[in-house]
Structures are given as structure tokens and as C-alpha cells.
Amino acid sequence: MTLLPISIFFFFFFFFLSLIAAAAADDDKPTAYTLLQSFNFPVGILPKGVVSYDLDPSTGKFHAYFNKSCSFALQGSYQLDYKSTISGYISENKITKLTGVKVKVLFLWLNIVEVIRNEDELEFSVGITSANFEIDEFYESPQCGCGFDCKTKTKTLGRNPFVSSV
Q: Domain of 108?
């Protein structure tokens, strides 16, 4: 009769050890921003506030999660909106089939569907047109609500290249 309680004790002991090991493995998981850098993207294409993400390494399919949607304005007449979940496919220098990110151009909200890094430039595509920006404009992440103006530091993207077609 004493064997049964001992076996139950060992079962729970090893069960809890496996839970602790799994939690420790999650602590070793790189942040979403570190993951971006591993695919040769700057952290600034993703605003601060990602609470978790998942990535299928075999396909590059990813999801990034915020606590809520995230909007901010950048000088140069850009308004950006990130849904609480964004997704797409990531590979070296390329994000495709992106969903959950919009940019306001004039009076229209357009989905950003692709981001490609070409040397020191990033090309953002909204399907019908695209715009190129210098990579050094994305070395820091904007903050939801206030973009880069939160720290009294002004960051500008300048022109509005989404207006003309490529």
C-alpha cells in the first residue's frame, strides 16, 4: 500500500520539474525585437509593447501580440496603426503577407503588406505602391500613442513617398 503514494509522489515531482524546465526555456526565448534583428531588420519597425510572439521556424509564419491596438503619428504626415495581433511570414531581409499594420496616406488607410530590406534601405509596400526609407530611421522603436515625440526628441521621416507610384 505504501508503493502507491510513493509512485504518485514521484509522478507529481517529475511533472512539476518538467513545468519548471518549460518555464525556464521560455525565459531563454529571444524578444520579438531580437528576433527581428536575427532576420536583418532593425527593431524600430515594431513599436514598443510586444507582450509575446510565436514563430514557426520551418515556414517563417509569425504572430506578434500587443495588449491592445497601437497607434501613433510620425512627423511627415504619417499615422500608423498596429492591431493587437500582427502576422506574416519572415525570412532574411523580407516580411511578406503582413497583416495588422496600416498607414494613413492622405485620407486613406492602406495595409502595409510587405517590408523588404535592400542594403541600407527598407521598402514598405501597400500593394499598389511602395516607399523606401533609410534604415537608420528605424534603430529605435516608436511608442504607442506618441511615436518618437514621447521623449521630447523629434524623429521625422520627412517626405510622403506613398503618394506617387513606383
A: 32-160
60-to-14, 42, 64 alpha-carbon distances in Å: 33, 17, 13
In a domain, 3, yes or no: no
Find the CATH number of the domain harbouring 143.
Answer: 2.30.240
- DSSP letter for each residue of 58-117: TT-EEEEEESS-EEEEEBTTEEEEEEEEEEEEEETTEEEEEEEEEEEETTEEEE--EEEE
pLDDT digits (tens, 9 = 90+) for 36-78: 999 999 999 999 999 999 999 999 999 999 999 999 887 666 8
**Could you tell me if residue 7 is inside a domain?**
no
pTM to 2 decimal places: 0.73
H or E element at residue 130:
strand 130-134
